[in-house]
Amino acid sequence: MDYVKAFLIGGLICALVQILMEKTKLMPGRIMVLLVVSGSILGAVGLYEPFSKWAGAGATVPLLGFGNTLWKGVKEGFGEEGVLGIFKGGLTASAAGICAALIFGYLASLIFKPKMK
User: Fold this and answer.
1) DSSP code at position 61
2) For residues 30 and 22, is the Cβ–Cβ distance under 8 A?
3) Pick from 56, 62, 60, 65: which is nearest to 2 by CA?
4) Mean pLDDT over residues 94-108, rounded?
């Protein structure tokens, strides 16, 4: 049942973003930033953690989850290292995800031979 819930919640988030893209003139990059910032804000006010525990991977995989991961890293970094932790914490917490995106993106470009438009 956890898989079904994660699929439905993740699909709902993606569907809402698709509606936002279709009904507004916002560019995809701005929508992505909006999602990351929304995840950070929801994490800061304490709403994202209970939601992610309930929804599982359906809430943690989309960009909302990335924003929450950045927020948790900044909060932890500030607690450990003070002001310097504000700048280091988010990157430290999300380093594995960023590295995976870069590596898998590079491997996909080798396999599929992308062309410039």
Assistant:
1) S
2) no
3) 56
4) 91
